[in-house]
Amino acid sequence: MRIALLAHLRHPIAPPFAGGLEAHTWHLAEGLTARGHDVVLFAAGDSDGRFAVDPVIPVHHERRFPGMEHRGDPELRAHVDAGYAAACDRIAAGGFDVLHNNSLSRLPLERRRTEAVPTVTSLHVPPYDALRWFVHESVTPGHRITATSRAHARAWWPEGAPPQVSVLHNGIDPAAWPFREQGDGSAVWCGRIAPVKGTHLAVRAARRAGLPLTLFGPIEEPAYWESAVAPLLGGGIRYGGHLGGAALAREIGRASVFLFTPCWDEPFGLVMVEAMACGLPVAGFARGAAEEIVGEAGRLVPPGDEAALAHALDAARAIPRAVPHGRVLRLFTRDRWLDRCEAFYAEARAA
Fold first, then answer.
1. Where is the Glycosyltransferase subfamily 4-like N-terminal domain (predicted)?
2. How many CA atoms lie within 13 A of 16 on its CB side?
3. 132-185: per-residue pLDDT in tens?
4. Are 167 and 230 in contact (CB under 8 A)?
5. CATH number at 2-171+333-350
6. Among 24, 79, 96, 115, which residue has the fewest nearby CB atoms (within 10 Å)?
């Protein structure tokens, strides 16, 4: 199939990934290409040149509009909308069999566009006001919509999702996150370093539990880092930088437990699955999809309860490493994920 893959534009679709959405899109492009599909990635122009990239905007907008993503900046909104509108026009005229919409834009959801090209939209965020109405209005037979978890689908459709909506769990290549039989007794945390990710709560829980902790990920909000995280470093708590690929997998794999501390309802939590593939049980907050993803492979506690999280760290470390690894192999592999994507494409084209 000739597939258009439309990405979010805040960061480049390239490793090391700024977050789970960028990783999701990159692996989707890589996996579909490996299966023989003709994939064109509509993304920021500074995305990975290994793909056929059709630039929606010249460079990712965090470079031109730093820190403006959630501030309703009219200049940023106009810049992004103009890029998406032109890209959607090129997709409609491009002879594509299907569009996989991974953006957070309302424009690809317009019925005139989903009727022009069979479309699969993957939702990656909770139902915030700027997008909710457009998603609900876009439900048609030829437009398939996926949520990343059952909890995520319930958030979008509390009274039950329409038949065009399916749960599509994210998947990873287990070979890229090698299983290790034993950890070194330490804890690890990975993600965007921002208040919404609760980095400071992970540090406090590790201190309570007396465990060494290494943090990995991009410092998305420097003021938060300087005021709430950096002062807590030292004494076994360290920052390991923003790593990608094999280097990050090695660092995560050598630890004994993974900390997951969201301060919002994470629709999935890809970092948990990556750590679980390496054999790490999870200690974290029961928010969003966490219980659905972790299952028997971890211990979850009420959101924000640092004392309970410290106890959960000890309880999680007692879980055999084969348990989280096995859960990933059953439920969250890249092949399983790609199989289902291809099935959704076929359904959208048939409708």
1. 19-175
2. 16
3. 999 999 999 889 999 999 999 999 999 999 999 999 999 999 999 999 999 999
4. no
5. 3.40.50.2000
6. 115
